[in-house]
Amino acid sequence: MSFFIKRISRRTIVQALIALPALSLFRTLPNADPAHADPHRAGPTPANPNEIVEVNGWILKRSDLA
Amino acid sequence: MIFDSCDAFRAANFAAKVCILGSGPAGTTIARKLGAAGIPVVVLEAGSREFSDESQDFYRGTTVGDFYFDLDVTRLRFMGGSSNHWAGWCRVLDKQDFEPKAWAPDTGWPIRRADIEPFLPEVHDILELPGFRPDVPVSDDIRWVQLIKSPAVRFGEKFADELDKSRNVAVVLNTYATELAGDGKRVTGARLWSNGQDAGAFNADYFIVCTGGLENSRLLLWSNQRSNGGVVPNAAALGRYWMEHPTFEGGNAILADYGEFEVDAVNEAFFSPTPAAMERLQIMNFGIRLIETPYPGVKSLIADLACTAPDMAEWMSAKLSQNLRCAAQLYVAWEQAPLASNRIELSTTDVDHAGVPRIELHWKKSKLEHRTLLEGLRLFGKTLIEKNLGRVRIADWIANGGDYPTNDETAGHHHMGGTRMGTDVTKSVVDANCKVHGMDNLYVGGSSVFCTSGECNPTTTITALACRLGDHLAKVVAV
């Protein structure tokens, strides 16, 4: 830890921590434009209403859920 | 003929060719078959005609591992054996129960279901059963199966008159063999105990051990120890591969229409997996028993569902106002994977009044069985959804991988294995004809010869195997 602190100022560390939550915005950027989306990366698919799910011990169809 | 003591039997000078130990479903059935074939048989019954605490005390023992019933409560020691407290549920093991399961070691029998099917008409007469209906597929995964609630024949009561009048069968009450002696080829005699005291030596040409799924192992283990291996020369599997039918409330179901399934006289229906589903999921056989839930149970179930799926709960609530019979408890009984580590041992510290070591039962359920329980309920739930018949809720302790509750049914009082049938002498005790490997005149009857347990109650299969053994012995002894 001391080695790390010697080379990076405390101000830089604080700025990095503040910026962390915003990283997820950049992570989703490639999918924002379907034309440039990576075809090998599955994006969120619409839920199948007949899919069988287990919630709180109940075996249900997804469409059963509120 | 029925005698109340060994002394009375000896005074009658009845020369028995075959000695059967135990008068439960197996022993009585074999005795009747041999008697009908004109072969003189003596049946030694440890108890009397009625239950007594003194007799039951011989059955006390201990269990190591999972919670199990007291060993002097889970079986009965008087004429008719444990048929005196069975509930009467009947079904023969499934065809696939006799086949090996590639995913479960040490499964598979040396005989097939077809080998006992010719005896089923006799079994139906003995147990007073109507014919079984074929299974009905509900989905690719689940089949409706029939368990017949029979009149629960008490073998001691039903056949007492017939045995008393028989000229070929002598039943000796209050008398049993504390040990058999053998020379590694034949049983050379038995030490008897009658009415609380040693009753000397006894001999017959053949001995058939039918003292129950716990006691068969105990008698043979003790006899073998006393005879330095002369009673069961290949004893590696003796007492091992012991099995039960663990039985627990697995959850609940809400049903669009309870009348959708054929139910029996007590409003229960039974379901099992298809062979394809068992193979696909690599699980054991199981039986789900659907029992109508009392009304307060239905309300709390719907309230629980409302937290997860309000629309579905509202629909169920509407059904509730129309028809109170719309929910069920799901009890699951399943086939245990046969494990050598589940075994009967002789206690090193505790003996009964005759000086015979008591049983120390080592019994533990495996991970495969927990998976069978969980996947079985999932299969049933999926089937209800696919067929639009209802929804299933799995009990929390199963879904979350918790411990088995100790206040549930626990098991079926079905004691199986210990002297299992097989061809490999290191993994079995008797051959396909129930003859002890390496012995010329020693046979075993009852559920202790089961290689696997299937999911259904064992008495029907026990009786069918006993009919088969009776026929076989009639031919062997007559030579």
Mean pLDDT across residues of chain A: 66
Helix/strand-derived category of chain A reads alpha+beta
Amount of beta strand of chain B: 15-25%
Strand order of the largest sheet of chain A: 1-2
Apparent shape of chain A: rod-shaped
Provide an overview of this structure.
The complex is a heterodimer of chains A (66) and B (479). Chain A is α+β, with helices and mostly antiparallel strands and 66 residues long. Chain A contains four helices and two strands; from the N terminus they run ααααββ. Chain A has a domain of 36 residues. Chain A has a two-stranded antiparallel ribbon. Chain B is an alpha/beta fold and 479 residues long. Chain B has 13 helices and 24 strands. In chain B, α2 runs parallel beside α13 and α5 crosses α13. The two termini of chain B are 25 Å apart. Chains A and B meet through β1 and β2 of A and α9, α10, α11 and β21 of B. Chain B: Belongs to the GMC oxidoreductase family.
Please outline what is shown here.
With about 70 residues, chain A is of the alpha+beta class. Chain A is built from four helices and two strands; from the N terminus they run H-H-H-H-E-E. Chain A has a domain at about 1-35.
